[in-house]
Amino acid sequence: MTPLSLRAAALLLAAVLATACTTEPATIGRIEQFELHASLQPTGDLAVTETLRITPDDTGRIALDRRIESAFADGVSLGSATIDGVAAGAELQVDEVSDGGLRVRWQPAGTRSGPASMVLEYTVLRAAAVNQPRGRLEWSPLLPGRAPAVNAVRLRLDLPETSRFYDGTGVGQPGWAVAIDGTRLEAERAPVGAGEGATLLAVFDVDRSQVRQGDWEWNLDRREQYFYALVAAGLFIVTIGIGILIVLRVQYPPLTQVDTDRREALTADRLMVARGLRTTAFVSIPFAGLLALAGARWLTGLGPAIYSIPASIVVVAIMLLVASWTYGRR
Predict the structure, then answer these.
(1) CA 130, 131, 134: angle at the middle one, nearest 5?
(2) What are the pLDDT digits (tens) for 85-126?
(3) Main-chain dihedrals φ then ψ at residue 177, nearest 5 degrees
(4) How many C-beta atoms surround the C-beta of residue 222 within 10 A?
(5) Of 26, 77, 133, 179, whose CB count within 10 A is highest?
(6) Do 28 and 92 meet the contact criterion of CB atoms below 8 Å apart?
(7) 35: exposed, middle or buried (C-beta count within 10 Å: 0-12, 13-18, 19+)?
(8) DSSP 34-57
(9) Partner residues linked to 177 by β-bridges
(10) Is pLDDT of 6 > 70?
(11) Do residues 102 and 67 lie in contact, with contact meaning Cβ atoms separated by under 8 Å?
């Protein structure tokens, strides 16, 4: 599996867990048709136009709750939104979500007797991965684990005229009819069940004089490069802590292991060691907290492995506290 596919699996698991733990307003009515036309720009951006045809439920109520996001892009920029050919007004709410994505919610007042047609135009910023010999795209217009059921879906992806598709191009989910003709990919499926989603996969030529690597890909590369170093640093800190405790054990053994005439002097030394260990532990824990906050603020691109260092400091601090209790006993 490619790094993109591994990351996608992790994100799918996170999406399933998030869906199980949170409740979001659902789409009301039925999405009869979802058509998407995505055009990959020479710069690596993805210009998208999507059309949704929604029918109201039996009571005439209608609403749409749609997420547009991708961990494999620098964000999403909304261009325009129309409802039945008219620019959407206050009834349309657009909020920014994780990874620079968008959450589009539309719930008109009152009821409707017929279907509604919504057209969204937006740009997925720097969606092309370019750190390999060929460019790659992995983008889910219908998010697995979150997308509502759709009666019929039609997807189209166009490349720049100077590019072409290679093996590995298609749709990530089974059951799709995919056709590739030159620089155009078309895929259809009817129906698509709730949560099944649709992920466009593409391998293609890129013009490196025009395309720029996205921040998301740079961060992903850094995570892979620094993961083992950060974990090893955390293990090294724990090893140092264990080594210190071993040295102290040898230098200040339990009172039962020394002669009676040495116990009084050794007791004073052990109490001094206990105070030192306790002070070090109490200083280390807030220091680890500051490191964790700094990582969350400035080093999020390195991923969760960055927290192995403050976590290891906390582990050592707990070890020191336990040891201080042992040395403090008379």
Answers:
(1) 55
(2) 999 888 899 999 877 899 999 988 888 888 999 999 999 999
(3) -95, 115
(4) 14
(5) 77
(6) no
(7) middle
(8) EEEEEEE-TTS-EEEEEEEEEE--
(9) 188
(10) no
(11) yes
Q: What is the token pair recorded at 239?
A: 């090893």
Query: Rounded to an integer, what distance in angstroms lies between the CA atom of residue 325 and that of residue 235?
Result: 24
Helices 308-328 and 260-298 pack at an angle, to 10 degrees, of 160
208: β partners: none
pLDDT tens digit sequence for 155-201: 999 999 989 999 999 999 999 999 999 899 999 999 999 889 899 99
pLDDT digits (tens, 9 = 90+) for 232-241: 999 999 999 9
The CA distance from 184 to 165, in Å, is 8
Question: Distances from the Cα of 240 to the Cαs of 202, 243, 284, in angstroms?
Answer: 48, 5, 14
pTM: 0.72
Residue 295, amino acid: G
| Bridge partners, 64 (sequence order) | 106
